[in-house]
Input
Amino acid sequence: MRDLAAEDISVFGYTHTKAGVRAATREGFDAHNDLTAVLSRASASNALIIIAVPMHAVEDVLDAIAMYAPNCGVTDVVSVKQGVYELIQQRGMQPRYVGGHPMSGTEDSGWGASKQGLFKRAAWAITYDYAVECEEAGLPVPRDWIELFRHVCKLARICGAEAVPVSVAKHDEAVARVSHLPHVLAEALSIVGDRGGTLAQSLAAGSFRGATRVASTEPELVRAMCETNADAVVKTLDEILELLHSARDSLSTHTPSIEQLAGAGYRASTRMGARHGARSESVSPIKISSRPVMRVQLGAHGWVKALKQTESLGGRIDVF
Output
């Protein structure tokens, strides 16, 4: 809401908390806690609906949208995509849904934790499974869905983010590694640190605070992320447990060593840092760089294939 309003784009919203509504309206934002009224207004203005609730609340919100705003395009910012898409499929809403997930945020919650520019230079995952399904069935991708995909990409750009095409399955596997697993590790590390008592707490410095920052996230939100993506999170836990057990065994010998883990971790961190820090202003054709950008003409021949190619490179898209 902050980023859209800053660009003079009409935006209004719903939250179930009266405190959230009061906080937003005090700052001049158009916020309400009557979902039926807000969705009816969205229907009348043919608005783009952005679902920004925990996973456990998505089903009820979709049912309300189906009843009160059946003509509106829908996107979301939920941290898992497979579960949301299954709910969309159950309701036959694929032709008016494009999933999203901006990879940015803090450990804090509520209106007070929001700020303008929160998504600047962040990756904004945007799903395109429905287009693939249409092509595999030998059907043209509906123009309305293509326009919705364009609007979601524009939404990301207005918020200062970079659109990254993803399939729902690959998205959930990736975020299990770089988003959900860090929450699990932060919780465990916080517990271990706390068991050290006041001395450990008084000696805790930047590395510990950084590694445990997201442990301050509301437990319900952590549960919503990890429990709804459990299969992928378990696979990543198995990987990291194998690494930790190997490090433990190496340290418990007569000549303790953590050389293998430290060296491999350093190299992996260097690679990820290089990818993250690379500039993203390249244009089509794709340049083999850390963050390539593909210009995609939506609806043109081969455009879905171009999305797949960009996804395989972890690249960004610029649509026209």
Residues 2-166 form a domain with the Rossmann fold fold (CATH 3.40.50.720). The first helix runs from residue 2 to 6. The chain has 14 helices and nine strands. The longest strand covers residues 123-127.
